[in-house]
Amino acid sequence: MTKYLLILGLLAIVAIAWACKPTSDAYKTVGVDEFEQLISNQEDVVLVDVRTSSEFSEGHLRDAILIDWKKDGFMEDARFLLPKERTIAVYCRSGRRSATAADSLAADGYHVVNLDGGIIAWEKAGKEVVK
Length: 131
Fold this sequence. Notes:
By secondary structure, the chain is an alpha/beta fold. It is about 45% helix and about 15% strand.
């Protein structure tokens, strides 16, 4: 009986953890082609690279601004640089950091779109990267 209660308890913990996990409903994640189409409208969209400055210098998307997710003060920098009335298009190396950044930005009231697969997917699709 104790074994079943333990299993039931573990299942309950897993269910609660699942229900409490952050969702990506706060922002949208799109593939390379849709992201490219989105960022082509520079009047309505701000393109943000959330990688480090050394990663940025190795190559980035044209017209991207750098706001390093790993640095202290990311949200303060974002609030200073990013207008809330424009869509914020974010990317990183693989999509993981930018998803976390997108979640934070969306929670702060920004309309955010994240590049699925990051700059790796962008380059794999043969899209332009500038240095």
